[in-house]
Write a structure and sequence with these properties.
Length: about 1350
């Protein structure tokens, strides 16, 4: 309270301008009264709960970057917006602290800022209040801005209309909180002086403990902040709107106009005289008058603009490329869906109709257990209707993903799909009301049908069609079967709808960009067109005379009517057949006027899509819930699939039970999955006896995406002939297994077991698809040896424990485990590794117990990814078929934001929202409790939004309401503050900006990867220092050097005991050294002689890895021969083989680093080769047929951090399989979209046909296979061997080291380590040495 009084006495309340009498004629009295109440008493929390001491700590992301937290806090402290006290202060007994969190901050170009935004997680405080106790936070829409632009363009033809975006600096932070409520706006931070920047000595504050930060202003995280700020933001808009230029002859007589969205004001003005600049100055005056002199954000005014950046589209394209968005995959993490929803919401502002489709994603935003999402269903639990509703919800979501993938698939169409005419932002009725649109008016269409004939008319273009129902029979048959009609008869409402759609297939290209007005006489068709679903079966309303006549007259009479009316008769048969063909190939869609590229893209998406439907499981066999998970509860699918899992069955008894069940069922394909110890011949014999085919596929579950590995066999039984190779092609297998560390959560203390003996594993297998054994452990001294698996690879599949009647123990290496202990996986963790949800595990344990759940649910189950892949393969074999489209009618919202605000203010004036007195009694005070009530009266009070401006009228009026009294401002008032030459407003935050500038440049001297590695190493050192009980991780540079050296040596000894490599230990030392330098402590290792002796000794005595070898020409030829058959095949195999060969050859000739052509721990978008970086030419001219040279542009390399770029050219070699020109040309033949100006040329060039980028481990695997085939040591070949081999070959061919350095882009002599001299050169040197006439000269 004392600070509030001092602020008022010194006149430093930035809101004091609200007392100005000039505002009485510019704002509604209720609105102005509320602003003045806030200015006098502060923002009320209206908190109804208990007020007692609550302490917290920041969220993990904030704790990981406390330096940034302190930077943001210091900014508010410097502006006197924050009080800081010890968390143990006795005066804080009623203070409620909420945790701080850091969230990413976007720059105007949609890239991430180096700074983060500090927010307050005030959920506890928000539980004691409600947003409806504060002013409503209604926001404008794009539609309102578009309407204003189009009105101005109609009012002033030929005059440019411009937009400007003005930002309010600080926004929420400009509103002071009621001093009686500031105790609810606190947060706790740890005492970490070393992260707070330079200052006084921290020694005198030793033992201070945590700090409590009390905010005196409104915060990001309080539920009342948006509404309280909206009252002020809307006030600036209303002040700006109620003023107009003083010089109407020069700048026009209209009032100014703009829309404020939170703290961003969008000004919309015609370029007349100085009007845009005057409008901007007027708004700045309104902001400074109401919010203070420092409320204008000058920096953002200079840098922000309005556009939909390409980065936002690419961000969505990369996100949708993830497998979890594939059609049929129900293992979708909630976080990924939230990311998609946020990106797609940005798209929906410019993509017409997408906002309506996004409702399919909103159904899933609840999530279960933080893992996979589940839809929110309305039907009762356990009912058939609920099962059907869930399946429809999933299909609608998958269709939405497919639509968005199609939207961002072709970059050359982005300007059309993510842009277009601004009129398209308006609803159809508003578009029809636009003035000056006579030349581009609506299209009037009507249609009608009888059981024998359908007809439609385009009145605007003078076109008509009439077709017999017999012609539409293939289409009608599909519709009548879907509607459940008998006899294939055509219902009238279906006929009218089909006539309209068939007509659109033919003439739809003439309707693009126009409003189509459909005049029909059937309500069902009306609801179908407007809402894509109907709530009634049928109902005729009007008589459609001309369309009725076309369907009821004889054909000759109908033709005469068309001639009389002047209509051109159209033949729609071809369009109907094309629509049917597209529907069968791509699903429900109409592409009659689309280009071939759209069909190509849809075909690609269709090939990637799988349909998963399982009819039922055999009643006699154990139910396989992993298969059941993907059924969606379907009971009558078009194609029936039966799937089951069995255990070891050497005698074939379980196989016999399965075939006996198949004898009693009608199905299209059956899948039986089990171990290799099964008598599979019995299944094949049964299939032959009934005349069906049986194909077996052996696989590792990790190849199908499982994080747990076992070898299995799947048998497919189906009626058609299909080879084993064809089935294997459909059964997509991965070559990089998932790491179980990405599935498991942080280690809990109870999940560790003590080991009596622990030995590191040596000479373990290198098969990447199998678990990585890092050590062997003995739980008991006389017990059996157990393998310890690495978290970086997959885990072995769990086995049953016959003694404990549960699951055998699985040990994994976890560096966070206590000394002498290893991590033991629980049944719950194994369940998650097998791709299932935690809620399913809890339900199963409750049903059958934990031991039985481990045995039946973990050991004997199929695995979600395995079940998904097998059902997908089965569905592809039988060509399962039909799709559906989700959607609802357009939700038309007409925001009456000012009316809503005035309605709330009227209730506030009546006393409905009084300030809550502090309640400091346990349990609260009943007499102070209030309930929120909702109102249903009309929310339109007088003038609401836009000025109604009629031609030739100068009256001040409001759109849609009654005329206001005395709204026009006097011209003297307007002239007073319109200053075209404002005085310079200095920035008073120079110290904060200087500190930020220094912080930014203190971390810019090293590469990003080095910074990341140093940050990780420094974090581990900080953890070590806390365990040792040190006050700070920084060494005292003024203290005893021996004492400091002992600390570092002790840490290195601990790392050595853990088995850390010498390189990692040296990196840790340099990270510690670097952190001390940046903190201003100097080089603390200067006098640590023993430290360097230890490091040099470790380096000398460490086991050196064998030198990596370079890829030879023979290895490339071997790879080329292996790829040759696939390169001449069909489909994706052809593309993949040519892509792999081109990648290897390109990397070898151009000496590429792994990240320059593959996914090396992530895709480096700045370095990786794209299609547009490659030019295939002949004598410098593009050559599509027989190029003789290839030029590769390097945008950025490891040695070119400033991205100056360079180009290298290679010529055709005419050597089979060893020619980069030929390899890239052959790749271009099958994937032309990736080259030149193709729609995929901006993406990485070397990608699999299914979309993912070629991975470094995949390349390494191929090189090692080639090395083994040629008798070379495979372990000495890695992806970098391509660069080594290319450099060695070039050196042996030229003998010029400088040529090698320029071609391989080396700037140092590091290339010397890679070069290998050929035998011919060495033998020639030996002969020359032996023939030297050598003499000894001495004195």
């Amino acid at each position: 309270m004392a600070l509030w009084v001092a602020r008022e006495q010194l006149g430093r309340n930035n809101l004091q301008g609200a007392d100005s009498e000039e505002l009485t004629k510019l704002l509604h009295p209720d609105h102005l009264a509320y602003l003045r109440d806030i200015r006098a008493q502060g923002v009320p929390a209206r908190y109804q709960g208990q007020r007692e001491r609550v302490t917290t700590r920041p969220h993990p992301r904030a704790r990981a970057d406390m330096g940034q937290v302190y930077v943001q806090l210091m900014k508010d402290i410097a502006k006197h917006r924050v009080l800081v006290a010890s968390a143990s202060h006795s005066a804080l007994k009623h203070t409620v602290s909420s945790p701080f969190e850091l969230v990413p901050k976007m720059l105007p170009n949609r890239s991430l800022s180096t700074e983060a935004r500090l927010v307050h997680d005030q959920r506890q405080v928000n539980g004691g209040t409600h947003k409806d106790l504060h002013p409503p936070a209604a926001q404008p829409t794009h539609e309102q801005v578009a309407r204003r632009i189009l009105w101005l363009k109609a009012r002033y033809p030929g005059i440019k209309v411009v937009l400007a975006k003005k930002d309010v600096a600080g926004a929420f932070r400009l509103l002071w909180v009621d001093p009686r409520d500031v105790e609810l706006f606190a947060g706790d931070v740890p005492w970490r002086p070393e992260l707070m920047g330079p200052g006084g000595s921290a020694a005198k504050f030793q033992g201070l403990g945590d700090l409590t930060v009390i905010y005196l202003v409104s915060s990001f995280g309080f539920s009342g902040s948006p509404g309280e700020w909206t009252a002020w933001g809307r006030a600036t808009e209303e002040v700006h709107r109620n003023l107009r230029p003083i010089d109407s002859r020069r700048d026009g007589e209209l009032h100014f106009c703009g829309k404020i969205l939170v703290d961003d004001m969008v000004l919309v003005e015609p370029v007349m005289g100085l009007r845009p600049w005057v409008s901007s100055e007027v708004y700045e005056w309104a902001v400074t008058q109401l919010l203070g002199e420092k409320a204008i954000n000058k920096l953002k005014d200079a840098e922000e603009g309005m556009s939909l950046p390409e980065a936002r589209i690419l961000k969505g394209a990369y996100l949708l490329a993830q497998p979890c968005f594939n059609y049929g995959d129900k293992n979708l993490p909630l976080k990924e869906l939230q990311r998609f929803r946020g990106i797609a919401n940005g798209w929906s502002t410019v993509v017409t109709g997408l906002k309506n489709e996004l409702r399919s994603a909103d159904v899933f935003l609840g999530g279960v257990g933080g893992a996979a999402v589940q839809p929110k269903l309305a039907q009762p639990e356990g009912s058939e209707a609920r099962v059907d509703e869930e399946e429809r919800s999933w299909e609608a979501l998958w269709e939405l993903f497919e639509d968005c993938r199609w939207l961002c698939a072709r970059s050359e169409t982005w300007a059309t799909k993510f842009g277009g005419d601004i009129r398209e932002l308006l609803p159809p009725l508003d578009r029809l009301a636009l003035p000056g649109q006579q030349g581009e008016g609506p299209i009037f269409v009507s249609s009608d049908a009888t059981p024998e004939v359908v007809a439609a008319i385009d009145w605007t273009n003078g076109l008509a069609c009439r077709e017999d129902v017999e012609t539409l029979k293939p289409w009608i048959r599909q519709v009548t079967e879907a509607e459940g009609q008998e006899g294939g008869k055509l219902a009238i409402h279906l006929g009218e709808m089909l006539s309209f759609v068939a007509f659109a297939c033919k003439v739809g290209h003439l309707w693009e960009g126009r409003v189509v007005v459909y005049a029909g006489d059937n309500k069902v068709v009306y609801f179908w067109i407007t809402g894509r679903k109907s709530g009634v079966r049928a109902g005729r309303t009007f008589h459609n005379e001309d369309a009725d006549a076309l369907t009821r007259l004889e054909e000759k009479q109908a033709d005469e009517l068309m001639v009389k009316k002047g209509w051109d008769k159209l033949d729609i048969k071809e369009s109907i057949h094309q629509a049917l063909e597209d529907t069968e190939r791509f699903g429900l869609c109409f592409l009659s006027w689309a280009d071939q590229e759209d069909r190509y893209e849809l075909m690609r998406l269709r090939e990637l899509r799988v349909f998963r439907t399982v009819l039922r499981q055999p009643a006699e066999l154990r139910e396989v819930e992993d298969f059941e998970y993907f059924t969606g509860g379907a009971r009558d699918p078009e194609h029936k699939v039966i799937a089951a899992t069995i255990g070891p069955d050497p005698k074939g008894r379980r196989v016999a039970e399965f075939t006996a069940y198949l004898d009693s069922e009608v199905f299209d394909i059956a899948v039986l999955e089990g171990p290799t110890e099964v008598r599979w011949a019995r299944l094949e014999q049964w299939a032959k006896s009934v005349g069906w085919s049986c194909v077996f596929q052996e696989f590792l579950t990790s190849q199908l995406g499982e994080a747990m590995v076992r070898r299995r066999v799947a048998g497919f039984v189906f009626p058609t002939e299909k080879s084993s190779e064809a089935v294997e092609f459909l059964m997509v297998k991965s070559v990089t297994p998932p790491a179980m560390g990405s599935y498991l959560k942080k280690l809990k203390e109870g999940n560790c077991v003590q080991t009596e003996r622990y030995e590191a594993a040596i000479n373990v297998g290198q098969e990447v698809m199998l678990p990585v054994v890092t050590a062997h452990a003995w739980i008991r001294q006389d017990g059996e040896r157990q393998n310890v698996y690495s978290l970086s690879g997959p885990c072995r599949w769990p086995l049953t424990d016959s003694l404990e009647k549960g699951m055998q123990r699985i040990l994994v290496q976890d560096k966070t485990a206590p000394v002498g202990k290893v991590r033991s996986l629980t049944g719950e963790e194994v369940w998650v590794l097998q791709g299932r949800r935690l809620d399913e595990w809890r339900n199963l344990v409750e049903l059958i117990g934990e031991k039985e759940a481990e045995k039946e649910g973990c050991c004997r189950a199929t695995g979600r990814r395995t079940a998904l892949s097998l059902i997908s393969t089965a569905a592809e074999i039988v060509k399962e078929g039909k799709e559906s489209k989700a959607g609802m009618c357009l939700d038309k919202e007409d925001y009456k934001s000012l009316g809503i605000l005035l309605q709330w203010l009227r209730r506030w004036r009546r006393g409905d929202f009084r300030r809550a007195l502090p309640d400091r009694k346990a349990g609260g005070r009943d007499d102070q409790m209030r309930s929120v009530w909702f109102w249903g009266e009309e929310l339109w009070l007088g003038a609401l939004e836009d000025d109604e401006m009629t031609f030739g009228s100068s009256e001040d009026r409001k759109c849609g309401g009654r005329r206001r009294k005395e709204v026009r401002p006097v011209e003297e008032t307007g002239a007073r503050f319109i200053d075209l030459n404002p005085d310079f407003n200095p920035d008073m935050e120079i110290q904060a900006q200087v500190e930020e500038w220094l912080e930014a440049h203190l971390v810019g001297d090293k590469a990003a990867s080095t910074q990341k590695a140093y940050a990780t190493a420094w974090g581990k050192w900080c953890d070590w220092s806390r365990r040792q009980g040190w006050l700070t991780p920084f060494l005292d540079h003024n203290g005893d050097p021996i004492h400091n050296e002992n600390k570092v040596l002790g840490y290195l000894g601990y790392l050595g005991w853990l088995g850390t490599s010498v390189a990692t230990m040296k990196q840790a030392v340099f990270a510690i050294k670097d952190a001390h330098k940046r903190a201003g402590h100097g080089d603390t290792t200067v006098k640590m002689h023993r430290l360097w002796i230890v490091l040099n000794s470790l380096e000398k005595n460490s086991v050196k890895k064998p030198r990596r070898l370079g890829v030879t020409v023979q290895m490339i030829k071997w790879l080329g021969k292996q790829m040759a058959s696939g390169a001449d095949a069909m489909g994706e195999l052809k593309v993949d083989c040519r892509m792999v060969h081109a990648a290897v050859v390109t990397a070898w000739f151009f000496m590429l680093r792994a990240r320059e052509f593959s996914d090396s721990s992530g895709v480096d978008q700045e370095m990786i080769v794209r299609g547009q970086d490659v030019s295939l030419t002949t004598r410098g001219q593009p050559d599509e047929n027989d190029p003789q040279e290839v030029t590769l542009q390097f945008r950025k390399t490891k040695a070119d951090q400033e991205a100056f770029g360079t180009c290298k050219t290679m010529l055709r070699t005419e050597v089979e399989f060893v020619c980069v020109v030929t390899a890239l040309h052959r790749l271009r033949e099958v994937a032309p979209r990736r080259f030149g100006r193709g729609p995929e040329s901006h993406m990485p060039l070397f990608r699999w046909a299914s979309g993912p980028v070629l991975k470094r481990l995949e390349v390494q695997n191929l090189l090692q296979r080639a090395a083994r085939a040629l008798g070379l040591p495979a372990e000495r070949f890695q992806s970098h061997s391509l660069r080594i081999g290319g450099a060695s070959a070039l050196y042996q061919a030229t003998g010029e080291i400088e040529v090698v350095k320029r071609t391989g882009r080396w700037t140092s002599s590091a290339v010397q380590r890679y070069l290998h001299d050929s035998g011919d050169v060495l033998s020639g040197l030996a002969r020359k040495m032996a023939n030297v006439d050598q003499h000894v000269h001495y004195t």
